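go over both lines:
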Amino acid sequence: MSDTFCVTITHCKTDHDKATLGFVVANAAQGSEKETMVFLSSDGVWCAVPEEMEKVDEGAPFAPLKDLVAKYLKAGGKIYVCTPCMKKRGITEDQLMEGATPAGGAALVEWLSAGSPSVAY
């Protein structure tokens, strides 16, 4: 069994549910002592921009996205943000929240090629 887990999130503005659920699962994986990586791509890169993250609140029983992300990072989770996807949307590195790292697809491939299970939202 792998000691790592990967959650890819491709939605934020387009589907608040998928962004929220992605971080719910990421928190569950991190809480299960799995070294966890969230890879944000496509519209999901907005999850790493504080002003956009704060707009996502699906209500009970889910916590607001900003709280889910803070909990995940505090537990040691990693967040990688697709650099080309950022560029396409005009997002610069200084707009990202603290704890988010711009990265290309190679970072995702490396993580998965080591045998990490993955789920996508």
Summary: The radius of gyration is 13 Å. Residues 4-120 form a domain with the Hypothetical Protein Ychn; Chain: A, fold (CATH 3.40.1260.10).
